[in-house]
Amino acid sequence: MKKFLLLILLITIFNPCSYGSEIKKISLQEALDIAVENNIDYQASKMDIGIAENKVKASNRLQNPEINTFFNIGDIGRGNPQVAGLSETIEIAKRDARKKLALANLELTKHNLDYIKFDLKMDVREAYINLVLAKEILIVLESRQRLLQDLLEIAKKRVAAGEVEEIDVIQTEIALNQLVIQVNTQKANVKSAMYDFNKAINIKNEGLIKYDAQDDNFSDKDDFIALLSPKPRDKLPPFELIVDKSLKNRYDIKIARQQVEVAKKNLVYVTRQKIPDIELQGGYGFMTRGMSESGAYMDGAYAGANIVNIPLFYSFKPEIQNAKMQVNQAELKYISVENKAINDLHSAYEKFLTAKLNLNYYNDNLLKNSNELIKVAKKNYAQGKSSLTTLIVMEQSYRSIVSGYTYALADYYNCWIDFLREVNVENFDLKEESL
Hints:
The chain is of the alpha+beta class. It has a single domain (18-59, 91-276, 311-434), classed as Outer membrane efflux proteins (OEP). The protein is 65% helix and 11% strand. It contains ten helices and six strands, in the order H-E-H-H-E-E-H-H-E-H-H-E-E-H-H-H. The protein has helices spanning 2-14, 28-38, 40-59, 95-160, 167-201, 239-249, 251-271, 317-382, 388-423, 430-434; strands spanning 22-26, 66-70, 82-90, 209-213, 277-287, 298-308. The strands form two sheets. It has a four-stranded antiparallel beta sheet with strand order 2-3-5-6, with no helix packed on it. The longest helix is centred in the N-terminal third of the chain and has 66 residues, at 95-160. The protein is elongated and about 140 Å long. The protein starts with a helix and ends with a helix. 22% of the residues are buried.
């Protein structure tokens, strides 16, 4: 029994599956490449192109022929031929309109796929930034935890030396215990952000690999290129220039414009349903000797033509009216999308300007002396030059500044992503656009 339990234990220890998913750290650019190559939703959406292309082929079809036979049985067949042949319906002015409608829908499908791809990249970028932010906040909290642990040791030494009351130790322990809860909560937030990051990438790997952000924090404050963002000091082009480019590049505007084109092509196709078609017939006919009045076998060919689908009782009026309304509807939607795009872009532009301003304010005014300030406050308390309350207040102020700067960085990155969403350009170079 003991050997059996030992065997089970060894299998559990050395079984790779027992370790759970492999954590693989990747850069933002790697995450984008992996998502575009393997994202399940995007791969499914790409199939829409093939479907639309097949619809174009189907729209160019010819009508299938019909086999016709007519045999007279009995005395009624005397003097009448037996016939067998084919009939084919020729569509008039419909096939070309149907094909152009399918081509317009194919173009619309391509625009939709471009938008899905762009939106996927923006979602991955946002999830990556949020994951780095969660890890950065955890680092800040853990740094404060270490600071409070140092303060606790200093307080204990000063109490032992009779320099301060024991209340300093109790006060520090309370602050430290409260911080432990925050650290544990933030660790859970980091895991949640990592799951959101993998959800954005969304690849099929049976859970064998979990991706993590290569960046654990915003430590290199000048390395904005790694996160595919401009530097806060870069000048933003005038709003008017951005609007002009945005209206040309936005996928939702392209989609709305193409929907108008699809509606117009559909109107043409529906209107042409009123045009009658032609049915051509041809085949072989014969009379046997017994049925022939002359007593001789006779045969020959026959040909005929019919006009079919004559709009006499039904002229497709409701379909045509609906098609016209769909054109008007698509044109109104296009105007609406363009109006909303300008307002959304203006909002994203102002938010990004504010995020730049706030981040630069932190860099210029708040971060310079905050780190030195907490060092001096800690030293003064150790030397008995200040109270613990003063030190904790200073520590809280320092933590607030560091946390605020972290959130300002994250807000800057996210506002940039929102700005890109509205401009609908993945790589928007501020320097080039300012020229």
